[in-house]
Specification:
The chain is α/β, with parallel strands linked by helices and 269 residues long. It contains ten helices and ten strands. α1 packs across α2.
Length: 269
Amino acid sequence: MKYYYDLHIHTALSLCADDDMTPCNITGLSLLSNLDIIAVTDHNSAGNAESVIKASRAKNGPLVVPGMEVTTLEEIHVLMLFDSLDGAITATDEIKTLGGVKIKNNPEKYGRQLYMDENDNITGEEGFVLSAAVNLSIDDAAFFAKRFGGVCIPAHIDAPSYSVIGVLGYLSDELGFSTVELTKRADEKLVLDLKNRGYNIIQDSDSHFLGALNERDADNSIELSELSLKALIKKLSVNNLSNLTPHPVYVFFHYSHPTLLQRIRKIST
């Protein structure tokens, strides 16, 4: 069945987000936009995920995916989406232990990082900048998320900064990702290239203010067996094998391993 999503939304816990990115406001607008699935992806933390989940349930709103946007050691942004709240919270705790750049926040200069409950009451404020890089390499990011029942997705890879292509210059198939996120302005050639290489593609809002949330359209729909966290994470964790016979010239320049059919034939002989 087809469902409509926005899998990259920041709450007021993120420095770059407006203070009105509250659990009630986000879930209320998502409901008005007829979205079926939304994900809470604050920087390096799932601290407001539970509140957004509760706020959405109270109004029979969209399925809320607990997640975060992690800044890797290389300063590459990756989304981590989890199949349970416990997994997201445990992953957040683990992120804290990894260490990395630690900057004390100056609310007057950078803005506030607000923890909220499901009724939009402020319950706390983060004292250190959450968006700073942590000691987790892009090489290890996919495995890290999987440990906690999650999937890791390179974020806005066509953006000039904080993206895997912007930082490294390319996306290696050996990093272990099955899904990538593109902006709404993605080049058609890049989209075709990614599809030829077997990647699932999602397009999200990366919204930091309410007016930027996705609306219900063909660019942000996904086919799932059922509307559940496990079905979504499973879908995003498996490569899209629609192109089993890529052009030989494409294989020569882009593949580091034999194609799937070549490997199957080798095993059969």
